[in-house]
Design a protein that fits this description.
heterodimer; A: 296 residues; mainly alpha; 2 domains; two-stranded antiparallel ribbon; globular; B: 509 residues; Methane Monooxygenase Hydroxylase, Chain G, domain 1; Periplasmic binding protein-like II; MetI-like fold; 3 domains; 17 helices; 14 strands; 12% strand
């Protein structure tokens, strides 16, 4: 197409660049600042963006390495960041696996089978995810604390309680996987059925291997969702060594005990891998979904 | 698969029967603690499970049951249960169920009339003897030899002591470690009285405080007074109306709802918080959408270089875990030590009190939430703008229109309709954006003179959270009632959203 390039065009490009650069700076500023703060000595230090003296004390704290206190004694960091990270990974891996297990099979029935109440169930799932968990927090707390009287394994402070509480939030996953299954032609499974496969074998041996890309995406999304979940974790987990990162990180910034530098190091340490996994999932989401569409 | 045919045929029913029995056992355990509702839900789940995995008619449901079951039990049931709790007085004062509260009271003891004894433990070979000395009279007694062992309640007989016991008394530290066992001891004195441990070095007559009567009332053994359970207030009450802790959970009907709309200490903060919730979610959506849309237009502009770099950088806030970036801002905005105030102080000589001034706190929340939320809107708008046919812009270029005219006459009108459902869902999300408020300000600064702590930056969900889980005595019932009101609001928003989606889809066809 022929566009007449006016003189004002150059100014517009320049203005656009300036605007975008300012915004990018605003986006990156907090991130750079945090890196800088994590390297400054002390928790109340101020200074320029590039620290004059580099100190690794906050990184030692975040990694749980004991350091020499002012009175010459070895002090072990009292906020176990690595333990929280491990708790988060544990809970998130378990709940992502559970979410995958529950949603793949339910989506199979929705995509391939006929049964009474199918449409109502699908709409119900859609409606369900409009109501956030936070509204049911009091009931969730009450249910698990009361169950815990009888079964401590699923009571307050148990990672299994969290996995169970998260296992219900799969309605969106069911919809996504169902959509993906529908892009895979049913003839392949039908051929397997003709060869004598049961519906379960057709699902487990034929359909699931073909749906692998979407399963990976759902696993990662469920994983990140569980790592980032704060309300339920903060209510169900009480003791220090059971907390997940999301529930524990705020302890760095209490007014009485303000560990700004230590927080900076801990948040880079834990935030970087999660951010990386998220961007990875986003990439796969796009490529996974389009490759599925091509097959259909 | 070389299993014998008969074994194969039997395997399924046997496994189902075993699972059913295990399930029934677990249900009984829960029922025994007085949690009728939980036991009922478990029983229903178990029944569905057995039916679906044994009946050949329900084959499709076998794939659905785990997923749908989890969604029903852990999403739908808690929501219904929240509504239910909203009609009860469930709180830290009325925490227990009625059977558990009764049991608690029946385990209470009191100090009865009679002499107090100073107690010491003396070794005698492998055994120990408990020496009791009348604190006033000086008469000494000793029990038969005993083994300090399992925490099992037992009764011992004491005899008057004629010769002093050999050996030093057990040090206090060791006594403490055996406290649980010693508490279970009852010592029968020669005069017919019974004494129990009342202090680390003291035994005294103590009796069970209450006796359970057949009509459900409790008789106080100390003053012969009668306690009756009052199922209106959820307490055991004496004849004069004095209540006895702990209370238990009872239905109180619509009381919480009436309070929210009539009680001054609740009504005022509730409405102010409700209005701020609306303002907060509306402004967030407006800011995020405006910024996101402008950026989407810019990064879609062909004449601009480095567009993919901008896109990646501007996407970052969406990828970073929310609980980390919110806390990062909490630190950066800190009144005294925060980097933002340092910069503002150096440049303009001002030091805004972001966390103690209500208006500034609200401004800060909106700034942070815009930072967090605009990338999502940008990505959505980028997709929508790509779908606009290019010839529209060519035609407008021929007509001599500038970029501003293009934006308001072509881009905005074309993307606003498909965008509307997403704007509403973003509104609904921020209406309940508990994580942001809770981690950034915690609702502070607080209003003065309210029934339960309520903050100027609190939104409805963070208000109920503080009511139930923070500093105001775990008012679960009231919190659940307000949550129920929020349910209704979310339902209303959802209905509007479904309408808007339908309109947007009809438009496409």
């Amino acid at each position: 197409m022929a566009i007449v390039i006016e003189k004002s065009q150059r100014w517009r490009v320049f203005a656009a660049h300036a605007f975008l650069i300012v915004l990018c700076a605003l986006v990156i500023f907090p991130l750079l600042m945090i890196i800088s703060i994590s390297l400054r000595p002390g928790n109340f230090a101020t200074g320029s963006l590039i620290p004059e003296t580099i100190s690794l004390e906050h990184w030692r704290f975040a990694l749980g390495i004991p350091s020499m206190g002012p009175d010459g004694q070895m002090i072990k960091p009292d906020l176990p960041v690595l333990l929280w990270l491990w708790n988060s990974v544990k809970v998130a891996t378990l709940s992502a696996a559970v979410a995958l297990l529950l949603s793949t099979s339910a989506a199979y029935a929705f995509a391939r089978m006929k049964f009474a109440g199918k449409k109502a169930a699908l709409v119900g799932l859609m409606l369900m995810q409009m109501f956030p968990t936070i509204l049911a927090l009091i009931a969730i707390h009450s249910i698990f604390s009361r169950l815990g009287h009888t079964f401590p394994l699923v009571g307050i402070d148990s990672p299994w309680a969290l996995v169970l509480a998260y296992s219900g939030g799969i309605s969106l996953h069911i919809w996504t996987i169902k959509g993906y299954y529908e892009t895979i032609p049913a003839e392949i499974e039908e051929a397997a059925t003709v060869d004598g496969a049961t519906p379960w074998q057709a699902f487990w041996r034929v359909l699931l291997p073909m749906a692998l890309p979407i399963l990976m995406v759902i696993f990662l999304l469920a994983f990140i969702g569980a790592v980032n979940e704060y309300p339920v974790a903060s209510v169900l987990l009480r003791s220090q060594d059971k907390l997940t990162l999301a529930a524990g990180m705020k302890q760095f910034l209490y007014a009485q005990k303000y560990l700004w530098g230590d927080f900076a190091a801990a948040s880079i340490l834990s935030g970087l891998p999660i951010t990386f996994v998220f961007i990875l999932a986003q990439r796969w989401m796009i490529s996974g979904l389009t490759s599925g569409a091509n097959k259909g | 698969m070389r299993m014998p045919q008969a074994f194969k045929r039997l395997l399924h029913p046997v496994v189902m029967i075993l699972l059913g029995l295990v399930g029934l056992y677990l249900v009984t355990l829960v029922y025994a603690t007085g949690e009728t509702l939980l036991a009922g839900v478990m029983l229903l789940t178990l029944a569905c499970f057995i039916w679906i995995y044994t009946s050949p008619k329900t084959y499709a449901y076998r794939y659905l049951f785990p997923g749908i079951g989890a969604a029903l039990i852990f999403v739908v049931f808690p929501m219904l249960y929240t509504v239910r709790i909203g009609f009860t007085n469930y709180s830290s004062k009325n925490l227990l169920t009625f059977p558990r509260a009764t049991q608690y009271l029946l385990e209470e003891t009191y100090r009865a009339e009679g002499p107090t004894y100073n107690s010491t433990l003396h070794a005698e070979g492998n055994h120990w003897r408990l020496r009791l000395e009348d604190a006033e009279g000086g008469a000494a007694f000793a029990t038969e030899p005993l083994i300090l062992g399992p925490d099992k309640p037992m009764t011992l007989r004491a005899e008057p002591l004629t010769t002093p016991l050999p050996g030093d008394p057990m040090p206090l530290q060791e006594v403490i470690s055996h406290q649980a066992f010693l508490k279970g001891l009852t010592v029968a004195m020669p005069d017919g009285g019974q004494v129990r441990m009342t202090g680390l070095r003291e035994f005294a007559p103590s009796r069970v405080q209450y006796t359970h009567n057949k009509d459900g009332s409790l008789t106080n053994n100390q003053d012969q007074g009668l306690l009756r359970p009052n199922f209106k207030t959820g307490f055991y009450e004496a004849a004069g109306g004095e209540t006895v802790d702990p209370g238990f959970q009872v239905d109180i009907g619509w009381k919480h709802y009436l309070d929210v709309f009539t009680d001054k200490g609740l009504r005022e903060p509730f409405w102010r918080i409700f209005i701020w919730t609306l303002v907060f979610s509306t402004l967030t959506v407006v800011f995020c959408t405006a910024l996101g849309m402008v950026l989407a237009v810019l990064v879609n502009w062909d004449s601009l270089r480095f567009r993919s770099v901008y896109r990646l950088l501007l996407f970052l806030p969406y990828a970073i875990p929310g609980f980390i970036s919110i806390l990062v801002f909490k630190g950066l905005f800190n009144n005294n030590m925060g980097e933002i105030n340092l910069i503002l102080g150096a440049l303009f000589g001002v030091k805004p009190t972001w966390f103690s001034d209500p208006f500034l706190a609200k401004a800060m929340i909106l700034i942070v939430n815009t930072w967090l939320g605009f990338p999502y809107m940008m990505v959505i708008c980028m997709g929508l703008i790509k779908a606009i046919p290019q010839d529209l812009y060519e035609a407008s270029a021929v007509a001599g229109a500038g970029p501003i005219t293009n934006f308001f006459q072509i881009t905005l009108p074309l993307i606003i309709k498909p965008l509307t459902p997403l704007l509403i869902s973003s509104f609904a999300f921020n209406f309940n954006n508990f994580v942001l408020i809770s981690l950034l300000t915690g609702g502070l600064p607080d209003f003065l003179n309210t029934a339960t702590p309520a903050g100027t930056t609190d939104i409805l969900v963070s208000y109920t959270y503080r009511m139930a889980f923070q500093d105001s005595g775990q008012q679960f019932g009231l919190g659940a009632a307000i949550s129920t009101l929020v349910f209704l609001m979310v339902a209303l928003i959802s209905i509007i959203q479904i309408r808007a989606t339908r309109i947007a889809q009809d438009d496409k066809r």
